[in-house]
Amino acid sequence: IAMLSIFSLTCLYGIILGVFLDKISWKVVDYKREQRRQPEAGKRAKELSLHCADDRSRKLARILLPILHLLLCGIGGGILALNETLPLTVRVTLAIVFCLFVSIALISSWVDILIRIIPNEIVLTIAAFGIVFRIVCAIVDPWSLLGGFASFALTLGMFSLAMFLGRKRWNSRGVGAGDFKLAMIASFIVGFPGIAYFYMALCVAMLVYFVYMIAKGSFGFFVWFPMCSFLMIALLVGLIYSYIPGVPLLF
User: Does the pTM of the predicted model rise above 0.70?
Assistant: First the structure.
């Protein structure tokens, strides 16, 4: 009954909220565009350009977002329902957290594709949920908080180095400010050993993207691309991977 309840509730959440993801994403996009139109002190107003906003892309997003939302919530709920080694309360908590992050992942990814920024409001929302989640984990296992800070420090060092090399070698940031902040928060959330699976998933997702771009003939090392999708895939994998029954674990 517990297994069926966890799976059913995650699927129900996936269906209900999935319908509204596209509308929520466009609300965020419209808010950020309007915000940029307001001139700040000493600065001129700017217009945020829209990308992938043609009718075909918008119709595709309205279909794909609910499907992906249901699929990911169902997968997460199914994994946690099958993992009988965890207490029921832990499984329910993880299912709630995972489903919330699935919703935020899809919204933030679509917003990043549309306007090429990860809004601070989304980053702060992820941070708020992530900090609460990490504190709850620390109550059960105090060492998990240390793992969160260690993962944060590792990503801070790696992404800072990437930005430094980008500026030194190619006079470019290499990593956007929104990507940088999101990576820091995601690392803290997944903790240890989640950080290992986070980076594995990030590398695999980017490799698949690069192979796809090479096949299309539009690949270039200096071509900008929205990184939010890859970071959110890595976050979700880092959260759930170690709970999948029977998978090989690094730690």
Answer: yes
